[in-house]
Design goal:
By secondary structure, the chain is mainly beta. It has a single domain, classed as Glycosyl hydrolase domain, family 43 (Tachylectin-2, Chain A), CATH 2.115.10. About 10% of the residues lie in helices and about 35% in strands. Strands 2, 3, 4, 5, 6, 7, 8, 9 and 10 form a nine-stranded mixed β-sheet that branches. A hairpin with a 2-residue loop joins strand 15 and strand 16. The chain starts with 5 loop residues before the first helix and ends with a strand. The chain binds beta-D-fructofuranose (FRU). The site of beta-D-fructofuranose has 15 residues, from strand 2, strand 6, strand 11, strand 15 and strand 20.
Length: about 450
């Protein structure tokens, strides 16, 4: 929803819908589901329902007992090669995962500035061999590459969607973010996997300034900018293909009303103070529909979810389908919640019987998995697989009550000692209608 007078626009919308109902039979046109899209507003009231309990708290793990995916690189934000239905794909007996990576001499907090995508393969789905960088030097777009999604496409090729961050060969580091794709043949031998015959990389989506904030619309007072983290999704109900992505609601901070419509019910608003500073929090989960079979053309649609006044970064969104319901997930940091809200670093989720609109926060607030309270940065970037297995990476452990800003001020040795940069033990969650539960830990590296 755009930052205009909501009440007024609601009555205008109602009038327009009325006119459409009258005219559709006459002119014979139809209104697509997307044009009727009802962006879900995740409210401050929803987040205020949050409790941390044994149903949503991950068990503590011991980083020193875990196996590193690579001894030379930190890795984070991993994702598996998926079939078109979202299940981990198996290519001639091999499973393949992708992850952001950086050499281990880089300060963990600086890793985003140098990230590149590597891949790993396995024939038991638990222990992974390094395949090295996915892309040949100089071929990927952006000055660095951020998270993405990989599928076996209709031609049996690897198709990777990723975030092209910054511009190739830029003089200073910029934070432009665009969504890119490329395809390659997957070659396997008895011992490993490689990618050959790469297509040219191309940009497929950029923020439009109408539904999604452009870099230019983002002012200095807004702490973060996002148009990133594509996730491929084929809707089993319709066969339509989409990319979900992390974004911000369009428009400039100065033009945003201090508007209570997004905050919660009348009763909640009377009893809750919303600080003016929360205007700068405008995270959203975007969606675009594929308009060709090659998945190289996409049309931006209104966001599935907005978190105006609530949260600034809804990272690596994804969706799974269970029964008749869609389950939409994103992860976020505790410091990305607007002031006045107290919510943990965690995985958050929403459910609806429709892909577009009608979402309910899971467990009333949205919180699905929180890190243990005595280890609040233990893991991050949870990804929910269709069978309820959840993967993540080891972030910072045992930081003795320091927040992320304080961790960033510690010595390089401290930061490197407490950062994991490897896969965390997987988790299993149950999902029953609009409630979830952390059931148990699974082996590190298991994606299924
Ligand atoms: C989450 C994240 C992603 C982004 C990547 C950059 O861990 O912020 O949203 O793609 O890290 O390193």
């Amino acid at each position: 929803m755009k930052w205009n007078k909501v009440k007024k626009s609601k009555s205008i919308i109602a009038a327009i819908i009325g006119l459409f109902i009258i005219f559709i039979p006459i002119v014979g046109s139809t209104v697509s589901a997307q044009e009727n899209a009802d962006t879900f507003n995740w409210t401050r009231e929803n987040v205020s329902n949050l409790t941390i309990n044994d149903k949503n708290t991950a068990p503590t793990f011991n980083k020193d007992e875990l196996v590193k995916l690579s001894s030379d690189y930190y890795i984070w934000d991993a994702w598996p090669l998926q079939d078109l239905n979202g299940h981990p794909a198996v290519v001639n007996g091999f499973k393949i995962i992708f992850a952001l990576s950086v050499q281990k001499d880089v300060l963990p907090g600086k890793r985003h500035d140098l990230a590149q995508i590597q891949y790993f393969y396995s024939n038991d789905g638990k222990s992974w061999e390094s395949g090295g960088p996915v892309f040949k030097a100089g071929e990927a777009l952006g000055s660095r590459q951020w998270a993405g999604s990989s599928i076996v496409n209709k031609d049996g090729k690897l198709q990777i969607f990723y975030t092209a961050t910054g511009q190739k060969n830029e003089a200073g580091l910029s934070y432009d973010q665009r969504l890119a794709t490329a395809t390659a043949d997957v070659r396997t031998t008895n011992t490993g996997v490689s990618f050959k015959n790469w297509s040219k990389h191309q940009i497929i989506l950029e923020a439009d300034g109408k539904y999604y904030q452009t870099k230019e619309q983002t002012g200095n007072e807004e702490s973060s900018y996002a148009f990133r983290d594509p996730y491929f999704f084929q809707d089993p109900k319709t066969g339509e293909q989409y990319l979900l992505f992390e974004a911000n609601t369009a428009g400039k901070l100065a033009d945003r009303p201090y508007n209570n419509e997004f905050i919660g019910s009348e009763e909640f608003r009377q009893n809750h103070v919303t600080p003016e500073s929360s205007k700068a929090f405008n995270g959203s989960i975007g969606i675009a529909k594929a308009t060709n079979k090659d998945l190289s053309k996409f049309e931006l649609l209104p966001p599935l979810l907005e978190a105006n006044y609530v949260n600034d970064e809804l990272e690596r969104p994804s969706v799974i389908v269970k029964g008749n319901s869609y389950y939409l997930f994103a992860k976020t940091h505790t410091e990305k919640f607007a002031s006045g809200l107290d919510a943990p670093e965690g995985l958050y989720g929403f459910t609806s019987d429709s892909l577009f609109g009608g979402y309910q926060p899971l467990n009333d607030s949205g919180l699905v998995i929180a890190n243990p309270t005595d280890n609040p940065y233990q893991a991050y970037s949870w990804m929910v697989m269709p069978n309820g297995t959840v993967t993540s990476f080891v972030n910072y452990v045992n930081v003795d009550g320091k927040d992320m800003y304080e961790v960033g001020k510690q010595s390089p040795e401290y930061q490197m000692e407490h950062f994991g940069g490897m896969l965390a033990p997987s988790l299993k969650i149950s999902i029953t209608r609009d409630t979830t539960k952390v059931l148990h830990e699974k082996q590190q590296g298991v994606f299924k």
